Structures are given as C-alpha cells and as structure tokens.
Amino acid sequence: MRTGARRFAVYADEVEATGENLTPTPLPFAPAPVRGVVSRRGRILTLIDPLPLLPPVNLNVTLNGATATTGAQTFAPPATPTPAPLVVALKGDEQLALSVQSIEHGIELYDTEASDAAEDAPGSSLLRRTIQHDTHAVALLDPARLFDAAMQGVERRRQRT
After folding, report:
1. How far apart are the first and last CA of the chain?
2. Percent helix, percent strand, percent coil in the chain, to nearest 5
3. 161 within some domain
4. 90-121 in b/e burial notation, b at 16+ Cβ within 10 A?
5. Is residue 107 in a domain?
6. Cβ atoms 99, 35 nearer than 8 A
7. Extended beta strands in 65-148, E state
8. What's the CATH number where 16 sits?
9. Which residues are CB-neighbours of 152 under 8 A, at least 6 positions away?
10. pLDDT tens across 52-108, in order?
11. 160, part of any domain
12. pLDDT by residue (tens digit) across 97-155?
C-alpha cells in the first residue's frame, strides 16, 4: 500500500475487505492519525491514516545540482473530512481500517529481504520489520499494535465530572 511517498504493508490474511471513496465521520478530540469512522459492510470501523505513525525516512533531494538528505515528514490532518481514496478493512476485534492512496501488487516475503524494526526508532512499536523490495523500503505493520500507536497518550474514555 502507499500513502504519500511511503510504502507499507500488512500480511494478506490480516485484510478483511477494501472500499473506495468512503468519507469518514470525524471523531471529536481524536488524535491526528484517526481520520474518523466509516461504515463498511455493516461494521463501523475506525479509519486510521498510518502516515503520521510511521518513522520518517531519509529522502535524497536534488535541487540545482546539489543533493540534500531530509528526514522530515510533515502531516497536517484535513480541515474538513475528505473521502479516503481507498480503505483497507483489517480483521480483528478492534474494527480498524487503513486510509491509503493506492494498493500495489502483493509481494512474497523472504527472510533475506527483511530487517527487524529498530527498538528505539519512532514508530517502531507499530512495525514488525522493514522490507527492502526493489528500490523501496516497505514498512510491515503490525495491526494488533495499530490502535495503541494511533491513540498514544490519549485516554480512550473521557472521565465524567
């Protein structure tokens, strides 16, 4: 899957379904990665944008003959709800979906193509490993940790006063 310049993946058996152009209903006080909720096949799914959860990647940028490396990753949530180009509904009790721009071909994973996620890297709690496929680094996400990563530092329920 791809969002912006980032490529990421989940195992095929962790995907329940896909959908197109679903407009999320925003959730008040939700953290930036949570785009809202969508209804898919009678289920209400929490729609998560994985881009702000992934560790930044170094990009080589060439401008006027000079090459610079940048690790900056910027993310600004939309001011108004916009349709998610593609929604990937995940299996599991958390009822989550990923908001992605495109779904690319499936790949077979060989142990020699993968490295474990660095424990101290930002977003590493969400990553199972990083896969080098062709010329791209692909982050293999762990859907079981997705909700906790998205809600990091936010209480799930507001306390009554």
Report:
1. 43
2. 10, 40, 50
3. no
4. beeeebbbbbbeeeeeeeeeeeeebeebeeee
5. yes
6. yes
7. 66-70, 84-90, 96-100, 114-116, 127-133, 136-141
8. 2.40.50.180
9. 31
10. 888 776 554 445 555 444 444 444 444 556 677 899 999 988 899 999 998 887 777
11. no
12. 999 998 887 777 655 555 554 444 444 578 888 887 777 788 899 999 999 999 886 65
Q: What total of structural domains would you count in the chain?
A: 1
Q: Report the candidate in 80, 105, 95, 93 with the shortest Cα–Cα distance to residue 7.
A: 105
Q: Is residue 94 part of a domain?
A: yes
Provide the pLDDT for residue 109. 67
Q: Which two tokens stand for residue 157?
A: 């329920």
Mean pLDDT across the stretch 38-49?
Answer: 90
Q: Classify residue 145 as exposed, middle or buried by CB count within 10 Å of its CB (0-12, 13-18, 19+).
A: middle
pLDDT in the model for residue 126: 86
The H or E element containing residue 37 is: strand 34-40
The range of the structural domain enclosing residue 6 comes to 2-150
C-alpha distance from residue 87 to each of 37, 48, 156 (Å)? 11, 9, 23
- Work out the average pLDDT over 9-29: 90
**pTM, entire model:** 0.74
